[in-house]
Amino acid sequence: MIYIKRILFCVLLLFPATLLANPEIQHWITEKGARIYLVETHELPMVDIELVFAAGSSRDGNQPGLALMTNGLLSEGAAGKTVDEISRGFEDLGAEFGNSAGKDTAALSLRSLVEESLLTPALNNLALVLSKPDFPAQAFERERARALVSIRQKQQSPGSLAGDAFNKAIYGDHPYAQPEEGTEASLLAMQLTDLKNFYREYYVTKNLTVAIVGDLDRKQAEHLVDKLLAGLPPGRRAPPLPEVKPLAGDKLIRIAHPSQQTHLLIGQPGIRRTDPDLFPLYVGNHILGGGGLVSRLFEEIREKRGLSYSSYSYFMPMQQRGPFIAGLQTRAEQAMEARDIVFKEIKHFVKEGPTEEELKATKQNLTGGFPLRVDSNSDILGYLALIGFYELPLDYLDTYNQKVEQVTATQIREAFARRLQPENMVTIMVGPETNLADGGDSK
Amino acid sequence: MNMRTGPALLIKTVCAYLLLCTTALAQTHEFMLDNGLKLLVKEDHRAPVVVSQVWYKVGASYEVAGQTGISHALEHMMFKGTEKYGAGEFSRIISANGGNENAFTGSDFTAYFQTLEKTRLPISFEMESDRMRNLSLPAEEFAKEIEVVMEERRLRTEDNPQSFVYESMMATAFQTSPYRQPIIGWMEDLEQMSVAQLAKWYERYYAPNNAVVVVVGDVDAKEVHKLAKKHFGPLASDEIEPQRTLTEVAQNGKKRIVVKRPAELPYLLMAYKTPSLKSAIDNPDIPDWEPYALEVLAGIMDGGMSARLETGLVRGSELASAISLNYRFTSRLDTVLTIGSVPANDVTVEELEQAIREQVQKIKTETVSQSELERVKAQVIADDVYQRDSIFYQGMAIGIFESIGLSWKLVADYVPAIKQITAEQVMAVANQYLVDDGLTVAVLDPQPIDPSAALSKTPGGPADDIH
What we know:
The complex is a heterodimer.
Chain A (H helix, E strand, L loop, with lengths): L2 E2 L6 H4 L11 E4 L5 E6 L5 E8 L12 H8 L3 E2 L2 E2 H9 L4 E6 L4 E8 L2 H16 L5 H18 L3 H14 L12 H6 L2 H11 L5 E7 L3 H12 L21 E6 L4 E9 L8 H13 L5 H8 L7 E5 L7 E9 L3 H18 L3 H13 L1 H4 L3 H13 L10 H7 L2 H11 L6 E6 L2 H4 L6
Parallel strand pairs in A: 3-9, 10-14
Antiparallel strand pairs in A: 2-3, 4-8, 4-9, 5-6, 7-8, 11-13, 11-14, 12-13
Helix pairs in contact in A: 2-8, 4-9, 10-13, 10-17, 11-12, 12-17
Chain B lengths: L6 H16 L5 E5 L5 E6 L5 E8 L13 H8 L11 H8 L3 E6 L4 E8 L3 H13 L5 H20 L2 H13 L13 H6 L2 H11 L5 E7 L3 H11 L23 E8 L4 E8 L2 H6 L7 H13 L5 H7 L5 E8 L7 E9 L5 H17 L4 H17 L4 H13 L5 H11 L3 H11 L5 E9 L20
Parallel strand pairs in B: 2-6, 7-11
Antiparallel strand pairs in B: 1-2, 3-5, 3-6, 4-5, 8-10, 8-11, 9-10
Helix pairs in contact in B: 1-14, 2-8, 11-17, 13-17
């Protein structure tokens, strides 16, 4: 058991990793329309592969939990093989298989040594999972039951309750409002055929981005991709998601919970991944609440007042407008005080922007730290998946430092003024009722 | 299975392959400064970055009753300045140099690290050497920071039912060993902690001869040695008062506790007393292979989706909704192997416990299959390569071994030692350690999450809530 002193929050998600000097990205599109991104790294005899589909929970429609359940069932049986056989088919080789689903994407991943006698059978196994899933009824019932338990588990976590309430409040009837895990009602109503239909619609090559990093050359990678995707139909790309509506006014939502701390989240819909304001907002937020151990929110909440262990803000750019969130957790009695400080800092930053001194230090951090962002295969893999899925330019990493350097204090101020409306933000407070009574609705 | 080669052959392939690439393996260089500071440098030239970690041989297991959490609180205060660099300045300087930094406290160590572009290592050494001997510990900063630590405890333990059970379980399983103390400390100890206590703790343990500096990255070992001599070399060494012995008294029968907390789900946590690698090496009565056999046992039970707990209990009988096994191989003292599990819906913790016990009984009475054994070894061998993708992890492995009093050279022995473990040895350690007399069972008895009944402010420790 280890305690990390300070939490390096989700700001890292905004810009995942980089590599040596700069990784050279090779990109091609297969005949069936899959977009492939490759970075060769030959120092270690291993390879990472990530298959990213536009098949996240934003495609759930009126069946929350469908994307996650479909993704999870893929490895539960394929081409007549049992889940035990599939699992052994990876693990006997020392290969690591993973699956996951978020709001925009659903993914399958494989990490393996590149020795042919190990990689080839692992890939064959992955190809079955990918293109010949059986969706066994018994596995579906079991996984549904487990999902229902994890939904119940969220009820005992004030952080999870706050997160769900936040999404619901800022997204309203947009698909981003729904929890990835689904709800008790939606899971109970779900049928196996729903999963099969979802799979047929979204797990197709035109809806797929593949990121590969490791000890392979282009020819080997092409061969690998062809074999892996042979059984998938081209299908069609998932249609664009609906746009997110702006919030009409401020809202304070309080949820009573028998915890000692109150979990506080403040925010609103933020930006799309392709937003032209992305860099000014990223650099600016680094100063406001994203700089890990050095930011205004960290300084005001933790360093000056000792109010919370973590105190942060971030933009999470997504296909449509992902959230802007500022958050902390504090002893219930001082939750209102903390809320007022966070609001004051956000308003002040939106109005005034950063100082030149802050901007300079932040640029030094972001550009000077660039080599750290791409110093491992797994870091590069994250960037490749990001660049590929959101169709960012291939020179994204090459121009990163330059784009950071070009940001001015004025641009930051203007971008924040355009994108954030503190008077229309949602506040979520989950904690003991005692502190809620005297809180009032004032900001 | 869709493999052309059987598992036995596969493992050989993996080994032969690895042997080939070990020639390209980074070498670790060891240096000892005159003041007793040990420097370990592992060159890894994949990327122009470096990680620098300073490990101190102190942590929660060095603490005494009444002052629990002091190592962790001191770790927080290490960011509050020296005469040369004021409060927060360390972090600002690292940040302005593009660095990542943080610190962590465990039962057996306290460590500080920075990851930087490779030419900026001197910045880390300059400031780490300064705070090794010259910490200010201002009272007004401590007054705020101890509040932060208490918030951290509320976040991690008080408001997390499963963590709370873990803490109660450890305090029950261990009677005299310091592992009964939570790393973050009991709330009451935090409330009464003083900056004077911290100053004593700092003086006692923060000295070059109680520290190990680990550097991994795109550096030249000789240059790093020179740099270390320049920055850490002038620091005075100190007498480190040896810790008294910390033997856990023999357990004379199963212990069982129930923990009532507001929660939605029950939770079962079972802990068996075991040696660690270090405690086995220290104890002449325990063969050195036993901890490795326990590692293999852990892999067979919980090493992935094809391991026994997953195939037998999550799938199979479907009695567990989630389950995990954890063996603390790198503890400094005798430790525990734990199995934690959330029952499936409509399954009682009694049924779940019975099913887990049957799995334990099985591994005690039936030899594990050759394919299971080979799978665990294949995973360990592959992991050894995967872990080299992270310079941070490489430094971590060296630092943990050194700070618990084992040579970094033993890190490289891990894979060969695991490869030699036999099915008979796995059965032997199962029979030796997975026994009722060394078992502690903790059960979370969920109380209604009634919003109108907020908890009493601060439980005075686990005794209040154990029945």
